Amino acid sequence: MKKAGILNRQLSGALAELGHGDGVLVCDAGMPIPKGPRVVDLAFRAGVPSFAEVLDGLLAELVVEGATAASEVRSANRAATALLDARFPDGLDLVSHERLKELSADARLIVRTGEARPYANVLLRCGVFF
To answer: Of 45, 69, 70, 72, which is the most exposed, with the fewest CB atoms less than 10 Å away?
Structure first.
């Protein structure tokens, strides 16, 4: 049994299968889930687990070379905006929410949180550790 890090067996296994360039969408409970990508649904109740908790847990385990979010987050969700700006100080690509939904169809993994605030979504692009 693991003693640290992500303990959810489905999520831990899915993360181990990721490679350079693969996309991981971390999304709120309301984001439409496209057919195709593997989905690990962590949503339990509204707000649980939060977008911040899940994103921070994933960032602790993944090498991320880029991130994309919906531009609408800037006007609709101050908390998510602050979180994304803090976690991606070297730049966060912003696209329309419609475009983010299109991009999510090509993600290798989607991790659904219980977040109940709008536009708390980010598409991570995996990097390499060397």
So the answer is: 45
- HSE-CB at 33 with a 13 A cutoff on CA atoms is 17
Q: Do 26 and 122 touch, CB atoms closer than 8 A?
A: yes
Which segments of the chain have a pLDDT < 50?
A: none
Contact criterion met (CB below 8 Å) for 70 and 97 = yes
Tokens of 12: 């831990």
Are 123 and 28 within 8 A, CB to CB? no
What is the bridge-based pairing of β-strands 23-27 and 122-126? antiparallel
Other beta carbons less than 10 A from residue 56's beta carbon: 12
| 97 noted as active-site residue | no
pLDDT per residue as tens digits for the range 26-59: 999 999 999 999 999 999 999 999 999 999 999 9
| HEC secondary structure over 63-100 | CEEEEEEECCHHHHCHHHHHHHHHHCCCCCEEECHHHH
pTM: 0.96
Sign of CA dihedral 43, 108, 105, 123: positive
